[in-house]
Amino acid sequence: MKIDSITLREIHMPLVHFFETSFGRVTSRRILLVSIDSEGVRGWGECVAGEGPFFSPEWTESAWPTIKHYLAPLLLQSELSSGRDCAARFARVRGHRMAKAALENAVWDAEARQQQQPLWKLLGGTRRDIPCGVSIGIQDTPELLLQKIETELAAGYRRIKIKVKPGWDLNVLEKIRARWSEIVLSVDANSAYTLDEVEHLRKFDAFHLLMIEQPLWDDDIYLHARLQKALQTAICLDESIHNARDADFALEAGACRIINIKVGRVGGFSEAIKIHDVALHHNAPVWCGGMLESGVGRSHNIALSTLENFRLPGDVSASKRYWKQDIIEPEVEVRPDGTIPITDAPGTGYQVREELVRKFTVREETFRAGK
Ligand code: OSB
Ligand code: MG
Fold it and tell me: Where does the chain have alpha helices with state H?
């Protein structure tokens, strides 16, 4: 594949409802989009870095110069045979996985469109519909949280995940279980606890959760293994897993029983597939995480979720939960049975609404070979 040009854009999109985690509240997204023109087709990628360096060290502002000065020139220097080549091309740059993934995924997207193949087939997927869950942020009151859960259950979602932190955990779980004793429920702490709180965390076992996601430090695997031994509830790692080696170590060490795969967090589709395969080898299920993506990243999450070991409902949900107007057509819709159907359309099966992207764009720069 000859990459003719790479265009980087920053778009601003207000969220329909704020999203709050243990590390802060987001009301509007600053999203970097990448488009790659290659031999007459255009592929799109989304950088899932947040507005600040809170979920990970990367943020919107750090991704821009990393792509401009290092990653885009590496892609433009010579031809690629496929999206799978990107990781090796970028290997000299340490970290910056979300920036790398935006480019790598745009290359896969272009490759699928060039071959007139669905992206999900190119990735090795087999599922024809994917089960969906929702991630519900911390609300101003427990009553507002219960209302949100009610709405999402009525929409058909198959798993409810709530964000927790000290002071917003057992008290809200009690209210949820008092109302819905049987629903599939999980929690995500985004590293809000320490190992001194084992006794507190053991109380989560009473609520029969599907999992507790990332209870301890974002850079830890080993101490999660100690915690997992003390809990009945399965630990799922998110922030701690950057690559397939991390996944292998975490599963071997018993630090988790489930892995949340976010294609941005791990540097792109090729590493995400490797983590999927490692988890399958350990017979541990994976699911697809979300990062409040626009339709571009969302459609890539859907394609990835078709791989066989995505056995649990992901944080992949309808566009309208996030945006008044999404930048793809059709928007992502979830059926009343809580699934998204997978089509045989080439590429992602969704078209980018370029006029809307233009409307939301606040800065834009194009890079070409030799310039
Ligand atoms: O930890 O999974 C997370 C959103 C932003 C940063 C981190 C996380 C999340 C979510 C939202 O849980 C998932 C989504 O609905 O996109
Ligand atoms: Mg998480």
Answer: 60-66, 72-76, 86-90, 97-114, 119-123, 142-154, 170-179, 198-202, 222-230, 244-253, 269-281, 295-304, 354-360
What residues does 9 pair with on adjacent strands?
33, 364
Q: Residue 350: what pLDDT? A: 97
Query: Cα 149 to chain center, whole Å?
Result: 21
**Cβ contacts of residue 147 below 8 Å, gap of 6+?**
none
146/153 Cα distance (integer angstroms): 11
Ligand 1 in reach of 271 Cβ (< 6 A): no
The Cα 300–Cα 295 span in angstroms is 8
**Are 237 and 187 a contacting pair, CB within 8 Å?**
no
The alpha carbon of 288 and the centre of ligand 1 are apart by a number of angstroms equal to 10
Q: Is the CB of 58 under 6 A from ligand 1?
A: no
Residues 6+ apart with CB under 8 A from 122: 83, 108, 111, 112, 115
Ligand lying nearest the CA atom of residue 290: 1
Q: Which two tokens stand for residue 297?
A: 């990243």
Measured between alpha carbons, how far apart are the two ends of the chain, in Å?
19
Cβ–ligand 1 contact at 289 (below 6 Å): yes
CA distances 72 to 170, 265, 277, 359, Å, are 46, 19, 28, 24
Q: Is 262 a catalytic residue?
A: yes
Q: Is 138 left (phi over 0), alpha (psi -120 to 50) or beta?
A: beta
| Marked catalytic residue, from 262, 320, 359, 371 | 262
pLDDT of 145-196, one tens digit each? 999 999 999 999 999 999 999 999 999 999 999 999 999 999 999 999 999 9
Closest C-alpha to ligand 1, atom 7 = 291
Q: Is the CB of 297 under 6 A from ligand 1?
A: no
Q: What is the pLDDT of residue 371?
A: 58
Catalytic option among 100, 161, 163, 165: 163
**CA 135 to ligand 1 centroid distance, Å:** 7
